[in-house]
Amino acid sequence: MEILTDYKDLVGKKIVFSHMAQFAEQITLATEDGCVLMATFDYDESEEESRVRVMYPHLVIQVLNKQDWIRNELGRLGIFDIEKYKEEQRIKQEKEKEEYRKKQEEKDLAEYERLKAKYEKVVNK
Fold first, then answer.
1. Structural domains of the chain, count
2. Domain boundaries, position 43
3. Average pLDDT over residues 43-60
4. Following DSSP, what letter does each residue of the chain receive, concatenated?
5. pTM of this structure
6. 17 with 69, same domain?
7. How far from each other are the two terminal CA atoms of the chain, in whole angstroms?
8. Are 42 and 57 within one domain?
């Protein structure tokens, strides 16, 4: 499961779900391999044009939390399970925090060793 942030990532994928209601604020597309892309329209009243803007993952999660029908349809089709996605993201963040902590410890130890060597020379003189 993945939330896409670039429409180009849809190239070569099979779209198996779409939601584009007439007055909807966003378009939702989901692929066979569990990817979801949501986009909104930004209207420029001065130029009477609209631009499509792909939504960031945290906004997609907010929409899925609010819109039961889309969330349930994606789950029913086995495309995207929001709870499973949240758990995957939590695990990913924990791993990143642990890696950061280990790197920080290594950095701190190297700094400690450097300072220890420097000041032991000063004391021994």
1. 2
2. 1-80
3. 81
4. -EE-S-GGGGTTPPEEEEE--TT-SEEEEEETTSEEEEEEEEEETTTTEEEEEEPPHHHHHHHHHH-HHHHHHHHHTTS--HHHHHHHHHHHHHHHHHHHHHHHHHHHHHHHHHHHHHHHHHHH-
5. 0.70
6. yes
7. 62
8. yes
Q: Do 76 and 94 share a domain, yes or no?
A: no
Which residue has 């939330």 as its token pair? 3
Give the pLDDT confidence of 62-117 residue by residue, as tens digits: 988 888 898 899 989 888 888 888 899 999 999 999 999 999 999 999 999 999 88
Instruction: Say if CB 104 and CB 111 are below 8 A apart.
Output: no
For residues 69 and 85, membership in a common domain is answered with no
Residue ending a domain, among 63, 80, 97, is 80
Average pLDDT over the chain, rounded to an integer:
88
